[in-house]
Design goal:
With 94 residues, this protein is mostly helical. It has three helices and no strands. The longest helix is centred in the first third of the chain and has 15 residues, at 10-24.
């Protein structure tokens, strides 16, 4: 669930799981902490931020750059939901 209590769309979570699994070359689950597992370094973290901005059409501000927003696919999906609202759930087919 997101901090506001609204769970992210399950298809959004699955989409991010698939993407992050490709990025890390590891089969991940929605709650696997790829940072804690040592699969993501600072360069990959920037790639994740750029992917979310590009795919879901919003800008991630400096104050949004809290690792907890991005450490799992479910947390990233909750962040996208909070930042982009329901219209961003599936990236509008992007």
């Amino acid at each position: 669930m997101s901090d506001e209590g609204t769970p992210p769309h399950p298809e959004l979570v699955e989409r991010l799981v698939r993407h992050f699994s490709v990025v890390t070359a590891t089969e991940l689950g929605p709650d696997d902490d790829y940072f804690g597992m040592g699969l993501v370094n600072s360069l990959r973290a920037l790639e994740i931020v750029a992917y979310l901005e590009r795919t879901f059409g919003f800008e991630i501000d400096i104050e949004d750059l809290d690792l907890d927003n991005f450490r799992t696919a479910r947390r990233a999906a909750a962040f996208v939901t909070r930042k982009g609202g329901l219209t961003a759930d599936l990236g509008a087919g992007r």
